[in-house]
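Pasting as-is:
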Amino acid sequence: MSMHEYPRHRQITLALSGASGAPYALALLERLLAAGIQVHLLVSSAARVVLATEQGEQWPGKPAALAALLTERYQAASEQLRVYGKEEWFSPVARGRAPLGAW
């Protein structure tokens, strides 16, 4: 299923800012993917530090590598998880067209 085949109500943007609570973020991500929701994921540098500190998680800095790691870990469908880097100015998230997850 390509990105455009997911109806808007089956997509959500999840942003990890670096606030404490990494286990909750990981549990939410896992449940969203298990439910067949397409997730547009943003992860700040501070969030990577919190994930490493609280969970022992060392996430790759490159969006494609992180998407591959998490897709495999959570057995998500191809293109179900989209990870965006801070330099992706034309992503749906940066253009104000990000799904907000209104069910």
